[in-house]
Specification:
Elements: E1 7-10, H1 34-51, E2 55-57, H2 65-76, E3 82-87, E4 89-91, E5 103-105, H3 109-123, E6 127-135, H4 145-156, E7 160-165, H5 170-178, E8 181-182, E9 185-186, E10 190-194, H6 203-211, E11 215-219, H7 226-229, H8 233-242, H9 246-255, E12 262-265, H10 270-277, H11 286-293, H12 299-307
Helix pairs in contact: 1-2, 5-6, 8-9
Amino acid sequence: MSAIRRLGIGLAAVGRPAYINVGRTEELPRDRGVEQLRDATWRVLDAAYTAGIRWVDTARSYGRAEEFLSEWLAARTPDGLTVSSKWGYTYVGEWKTDAPVHEVKDHGLDRYRAQYAETRALLGDHLSVYQVHSLTEESPLFHDAGLQAALAEAAAGGVRVGFSTSGPRQAETIRRAMGLEVSGRRLFDTVQSTWNLLESSAEPALEEAHQAGLHVLLKEVLANGRLAVRPPNALRAMAAEERVGADALALAAALSRPWADTVLIGAVSPGQLQANLAATRVSLDERQLDLLAGLRIAPERYWRERSELPWT
């Protein structure tokens, strides 16, 4: 499969006025009203589709991203698109950049049923994959037979069921979730996890998931923009040698993982997207990959620093 077809576009940073991604606000309209962000979302989707990207990832908690995507799908009627969304968080930011709370997590059965209905109402048959949003080992899903059965029912109806992960124990969560079965069938078909040059601790578990037949998606490959805007010196120097931006080099490192089926891009403008797409022209050798592996930091430190990023 070509590199471009292994890329997906994620809408976390463009479907709501505030998010934690560094380097985002400079690319968005000064007025981040609903109409302005709808237009921004459409521009990114148009550019991504024109470039050959055929996977779009969203979530119930991404503000009005599902709504914007629904309208774009109706207007553009694109062919061959895979649409994934997520449930488990609710957006409560009331379209304010300074909201005290932007999203609330709930992995209960009632929340799943309500959000699945909401997603279906917007995305209809375009919905290909529905994922548990930020599954952790503490999630009640692991003990809730009713919720597991409801997810299995969606799978039986033709929607692939998956989960995303976050936090310093992603690998443990992935392995535990891979073992869940309902009526003798594995529950999950996809997994979406954070992987980047700073936080790659989930890599062995993700490779196992790929080998077991799950579709592996990588998210936050640019560490919420930090690798693009504030890259480590080694990354900056190597990017200069390759004559691409640090963002493209970080994405190329993700694409170098053969077990990564889809690598998500979080661009919020066509310009950002085009800079990211330079990754498809970069081929890293073992020496370069070894040097980049030295950028890893402890997962606990990574997730602590991520939690300190402001919503702007």
